[in-house]
């Protein structure tokens, strides 16, 4: 199987959030969603593809890339990763 990537544009800045996945595993890259409505769109996609979030990765720690990190970590019971120098 090949890994797939789903892209979402979230928050007022339309910052990209990615779901990188190979069934049934998924990583969220840059949890940019900033409200429950946006988070619901992501969760609906995960449910429709029967995916389980294993990790959350922030490419860097600018506010628009981490809006939803806490919400996602709590919902999916997984860790959030970022580079130590950021």
Describe this structure in words.
The chain has 86 residues and is α/β, with parallel strands linked by helices. The chain has three helices and five strands; from the N terminus they run E-E-E-H-E-H-H-E. Strand 2 (15-22) and strand 3 form a beta hairpin. The longest helix is centred in the middle third of the chain and has 13 residues, at 36-48. 23% of the residues are buried. The mean pLDDT is 97.
Descriptive tags:
alpha/beta, globular, 86 residues
Structure at a glance:
The chain is an alpha/beta fold and 86 residues long. The protein has helices at 36-48, 63-66, 69-76, and strands spanning 4-10, 15-22, 25-29, 52-57, 80-81.
Oligomer: single chain
Biggest sheet record: 5 strands, mixed
**Share of helical residues:** 25-40%
> Could you spell the SSE succession in H and E letters?
EEEHEHHE
Alpha plus pi helix count: 3
Count of distinct strands? 5
Principal-axis shape equals globular
Rg on CA atoms, Å: 12 Å
> What is the SS-derived class?
alpha/beta
Percentage of β-strand residues: 25-35%
Q: What is the typical, i.e. mean, pLDDT?
A: 97
End-to-end Cα distance: 33 Å
Give start-end ranges of low-pLDDT stretches: none
Strand order of the largest sheet: 1-2-3-4-5
